[in-house]
């Protein structure tokens, strides 16, 4: 009987030591790994989980928190160049799965660089899944739980627009490039979460802006990114676009803007973004 108890105690000690070793190894991995992040939302999760110091480089959409602006930039996540990333000698590259072709994946594997590719769904659940996937994979699960808790608190403060205003999103880079957001975009998902509805439902993704489309949509609110509004000369410049003055938004001067990375990233600050949008479209 004594031998059985001793054996059980030894097994428990061995299991405890094994678990402790695993935890130490995981902590060591998270502390030492050099990461290149190829998504603004991914970079925000990493920084929020205490791994900003591990980020060796990012794509150009990774500008929050402020410290990420100083990180080496490797281009846009829609046009990934393996050579520029490999030059930073990362141990791990993290990106959105749909942005990676099989040939691109093969380049990193041939170079012996680990890839962590994740799916991103533009929803509250999708944001939580992204946070859990990243923090679990990088052995900082408790940090992920904390990020989710803050996200839930932020979302609880959202006061959706009661009147369900029709919101038209214009992606602009000067008067020469103006696109209207249709269905299925992340901006549309944000509009709905804020209590609004997309003013355009006839097509998916983006199409060039026309005066006819503006008048037909007759939005109550016109939404742009801050950078887009600036490129058009502010609200006054937008109001001069053909068709704007015929809409409810134009008549009521309801032209608003938000930081593009905050509005469209669906990262840890999603609740903050939806709070701001709901307030502005109300």
TrEMBL record:
Gene3D superfamilies: Nitrogenase molybdenum iron protein domain (3.40.50.1980)
Keyword Signal: yes
UniProt protein name: Iron complex transport system substrate-binding protein
Keyword Heme recorded: no
Keywords: Signal
Entries under InterPro entries matching the protein: ABC_Transporter_SBP, ABC_transptr_periplasmic_BD
Signal peptide: 1-22
Domain Fe/B12 periplasmic-binding positions: 34-282
Source organism: Pedobacter cryoconitis
């Amino acid at each position: 009987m004594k031998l059985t108890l001793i054996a059980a105690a030894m097994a428990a000690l061995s299991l405890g030591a094994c678990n402790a070793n695993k935890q130490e190894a995981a902590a060591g991995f998270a502390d030492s790994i050099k990461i290149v992040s190829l998504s603004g939302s991914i970079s925000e999760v990493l920084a929020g989980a205490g791994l900003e110091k591990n980020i060796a480089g990012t794509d150009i959409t990774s500008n929050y928190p402020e410290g990420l602006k100083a990180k080496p930039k490797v281009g846009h996540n829609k046009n990934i160049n393996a050579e520029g990333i490999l030059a930073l000698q990362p141990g791990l590259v993290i990106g959105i799965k749909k942005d990676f072709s099989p040939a691109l994946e093969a380049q990193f594997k041939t170079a012996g660089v680990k890839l962590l590719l994740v799916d991103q769904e533009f929803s509250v659940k999708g944001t939580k899944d992204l946070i859990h996937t990243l923090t679990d994979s990088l052995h900082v699960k408790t940090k992920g739980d904390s990020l989710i808790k803050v996200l839930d608190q932020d979302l609880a403060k959202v006061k959706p627009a009661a009147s369900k205003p029709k919101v038209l999103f214009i992606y602009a880079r000067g008067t020469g490039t103006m696109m209207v957001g249709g269905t299925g975009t992340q901006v549309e998902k944000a509009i709905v979460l804020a209590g609004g509805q997309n003013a355009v439902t006839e097509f998916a993704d983006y199409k060039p802006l026309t005066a006819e489309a503006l008048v037909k949509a007759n939005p109550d609110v016109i939404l742009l990114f801050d950078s887009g509004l600036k490129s058009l000369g502010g609200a006054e410049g937008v109001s001069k676009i053909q068709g704007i003055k015929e809409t409810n938004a134009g008549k009521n001067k309801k032209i608003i803007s938000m930081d593009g990375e905050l509005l469209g990233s669906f990262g840890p600050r999603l609740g903050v973004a939806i709070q701001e949008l709901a307030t502005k479209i109300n």
